[in-house]
């Protein structure tokens, strides 16, 4: 897996970051897309996003990552935010149990608005603050297993597992897409944008249409 | 500063020891934790926290909303904490009611209004956004909720805020329309945004040129988006909302378009108190004294600027905010053609008339209600009097009955006594008559008399 050029990609995957306010969604995004971390990053209002193109095997995948405000009252405006998302990182702060306790509600929110086939990873962020941990790893892992979610603990501050988390989600999405492409004879199960796998890099129109699973 | 009220509370610890402030707070603060007057009480970050917390105390039903922080921060850069707080209250209650409330319905509604206005201002941008199915809330939420504090360069923020305080929400709409027109308003620009993501990215990275103070103010001034237009579109979008999404969950108060409207409303509600009832000065926001007068009315004490205030600039009180004051967006004759000016003037007069009508209507309504209330009160009073009479009558009746019974008893007693006396009289025929005899007789007669009634 490596950085591809911004210009060349075969797939665009839209991935959303969700979770309570203050769990570190924005810093996970900035760490993954720009390798930056800010101790006093400002609160997200509305929607932010960033992209990074990664190579999965021979395919260049442009990850389009959307980040939104976690505060309850912003959820009213997020149905537009979920549209077309094929992956989600449901983030909680492992030093604040409350942010883990509401994970189920977030999951419901996600399935209400996104495609049922969306790839979801539960992410316990701030693993560098192990002395303040309030959510045991095993508890979160069990929850993820029972709900069919991927699971990882990350630290946007010291970069632990951040790459791995996004990479795992993207690979999972890619696997699903590839499988469906093999099975399908262009049924309604898969709709591809113009950024198709067979497209010659750098040619054709660069459209950021997302692939819906 | 992050997120929820809970995290707002957590932030106290991160702000270091503020025992000094707390000590003072115990002694003489008001219920929102302010000391009164215009002291600067330490770090701006602490003040920011206090303002936001004070708002949750002031409006516990609304609570804290993240976007209030940038707004309060801009205010705090120009005035002491307490005044900044009241200014924030004014923005949340009068200028942008419902913006920070649960569900963010007011923002969503304004998004729809904005999109409708965009159709006139820039059909190309409108069509492009509609084709790519980009909801207005995806890009305008931060613009509107923070009044561009996070979007524009600082000089432009100040100018926009000046205009906003004077003329209200239409300025926000206008700025947003100008930004979109210059970001997606031409064929080449639209062509470079093939996908939704490219468009969104473009809207996140607006061209610097269109955000420049002079250019932006010029454009905003010349955009014919009036209060009347916004109100009309508001009604249309509200109707649409109700048809498609049902009733709004939260009903904000009526939006007031600028300081004059607010001032007039206040004057209607309470008669003027004389020269001391000045409006709160936003002197720091005034970067160009000759061009624009920025000011927000505020319920609390008249503005007194601390000499140690961090905000430089001339002191301009908003006392002069008066209908005749040239508006910062309408004052530039060189920019606006005279026809335009006349039209705007007409528009303004029309609005004034409409407002007057509205006011008279409200006045009549109020009078009617007052009359009704008085009528009701009279009725109540009458009812009460009637009941009182009834009660008195009954009481009298009862008293009479008692009296009668008593007298009856007395009479019987008397009779018995009389019999006894007769006996005794018989016994001692020369003795003086008992003194009570004389008193008894009339009451007995009375009792007999009463019995006829």
UniProtKB/TrEMBL annotation, chain A:
Cited SMART domains: RAB, RAN, RAS, RHO
Keyword Membrane attributed: no
Coiled-coil portions: none
Gene3D superfamilies: P-loop containing nucleotide triphosphate hydrolases
Keywords: GTP-binding, Nucleotide-binding
Family (UniProt): Belongs to the small GTPase superfamily. Rab family.
NCBIfam families: small_GTP
Annotated protein name in UniProt: Ras-related protein Rab-25
Organism encoding this protein: Galeopterus variegatus (Malayan flying lemur)
Lineage: Eukaryota, Metazoa, Chordata, Craniata, Vertebrata
From TrEMBL, chain B:
Annotated ranges, domain Rab-GAP TBC: 1-168
Pfam families per UniProt: RabGAP-TBC
Basic and acidic residues composition bias: residue spans: 339-418
Coiled-coil region: none
UniProt-annotated stretches for the region Disordered: 249-453
Residue ranges, compositional bias (Low complexity): 275-296, 321-338
UniProt cross-references to Gene3D superfamilies, sorted A to Z: putative rabgap domain of human tbc1 domain family member 14 like domains, Ypt/Rab-GAP domain of gyp1p, domain 3
Superkingdom in the source lineage: Eukaryota
PANTHER family for the chain: RAB GTPASE-ACTIVATING PROTEIN 1-LIKE (PTHR47219), TBC1 DOMAIN FAMILY MEMBER 10B (PTHR47219:SF17)
This protein's name: TBC1 domain family member 10B isoform X3
Name of the gene encoding the protein in the UniProt record: TBC1D10B
């Amino acid at each position: 897996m490596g950085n591809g050029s911004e210009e060349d990609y075969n797939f665009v995957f839209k991935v959303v970051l969700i979770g309570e306010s203050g769990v570190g969604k924005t810093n996970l995004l900035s760490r993954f897309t720009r390798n930056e971390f800010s101790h006093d990053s400002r609160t997200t209002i509305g929607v932010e996003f960033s992209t990074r193109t990664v190579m999965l095997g021979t395919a260049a995948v442009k990850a389009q990552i959307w980040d939104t405000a976690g505060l309850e009252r912003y959820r009213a405006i997020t149905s537009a935010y979920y549209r077309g998302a094929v992956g989600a990182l449901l983030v909680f702060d492992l030093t604040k149990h409350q942010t883990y306790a509401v994970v189920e509600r977030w999951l419901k929110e996600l399935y209400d608005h996104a495609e049922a086939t969306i790839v979801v990873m539960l992410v316990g962020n701030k693993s560098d603050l192990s002395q303040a941990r309030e959510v045991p790893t095993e508890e979160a892992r069990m929850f993820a297993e029972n709900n069919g979610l991927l699971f990882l603990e990350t630290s946007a501050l010291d970069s632990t597992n951040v790459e791995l988390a996004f990479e795992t989600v993207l690979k999972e999405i890619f696997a699903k897409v590839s499988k469906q492409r093999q099975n399908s004879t262009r049924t309604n199960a898969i709709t591809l944008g113009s950024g198709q796998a067979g497209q010659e890099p750098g040619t054709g129109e660069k459209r950021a249409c997302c692939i819906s699973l | 500063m992050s997120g929820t009220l809970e995290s707002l509370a957590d932030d106290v610890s991160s702000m270091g020891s503020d025992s000094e402030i707390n000590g003072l707070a115990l002694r003489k603060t008001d219920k929102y934790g302010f000391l009164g007057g215009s002291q600067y009480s330490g770090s701006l970050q602490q003040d920011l926290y206090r303002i936001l917390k004070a708002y949750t105390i002031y409006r516990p039903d609304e609570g804290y909303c993240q976007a209030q922080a940038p707004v309060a921060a801009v205010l705090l850069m120009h005035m002491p904490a307490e005044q900044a707080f009241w200014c924030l209250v004014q923005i949340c209650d009068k200028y942008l009611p419902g913006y920070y409330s649960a569900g963010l319905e007011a923002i969503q509604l304004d998004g729809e209004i904005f999109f409708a206005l965009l159709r006139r201002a820039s059909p190309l941008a409108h069509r492009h956004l509609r084709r790519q199915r980009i909801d207005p809330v995806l890009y305008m939420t931060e613009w509107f909720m923070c009044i561009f504090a996070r979007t524009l360069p600082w000089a432009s923020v100040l100018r926009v805020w000046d205009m906003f305080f004077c003329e209200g929400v239409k300025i926000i709409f206008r700025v947003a329309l100008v930004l979109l027109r210059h970001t997606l308003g031409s064929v080449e620009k639209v062509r470079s945004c093939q996908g939704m993501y490219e468009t969104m990215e473009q809207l996140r990275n607006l061209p610097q040129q269109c955000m420049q103070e002079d250019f932006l103010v010029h454009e905003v001034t010349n955009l014919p988006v009036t209060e009347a237009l916004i109100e009309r579109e508001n009604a249309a979008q509200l109707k649409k909302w109700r048809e498609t999404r049902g009733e709004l969950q939260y009903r904000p108060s009526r939006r007031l378009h600028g300081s004059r409207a607010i001032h007039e409303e206040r004057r209607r509600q309470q008669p003027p108190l004389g020269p001391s009832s000045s409006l709160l000065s936003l002197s720091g926001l005034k970067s160009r004294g000759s061009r624009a007068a920025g000011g927000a009315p505020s319920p609390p004490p008249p503005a007194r600027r601390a000499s140690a205030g961090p905000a430089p600039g001339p002191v301009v009180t908003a006392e002069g905010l008066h209908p005749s004051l040239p508006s910062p967006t309408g004052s530039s004759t060189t920019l606006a053609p005279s026809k335009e000016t006349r039209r705007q003037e007409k528009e303004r007069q029309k609005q004034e008339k409409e407002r007057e009508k509205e006011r008279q209507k409200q006045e009549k309504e109020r009078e009617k209600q007052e009359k009704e209330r008085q009528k009701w009160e009279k009725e109540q009073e009458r009812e009460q009097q009637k009941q009182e009479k009834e009660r008195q009558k009954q009481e009298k009746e009862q008293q009479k009955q008692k009296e009668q019974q008593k007298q009856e008893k007395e009479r019987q007693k008397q009779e018995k006594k009389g019999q006894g006396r007769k006996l005794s009289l018989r016994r001692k025929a020369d003795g003086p008559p008992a003194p009570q005899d004389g008193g008894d007789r009339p009451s007995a007669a009375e009792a007999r008399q009463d019995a006829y009634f």
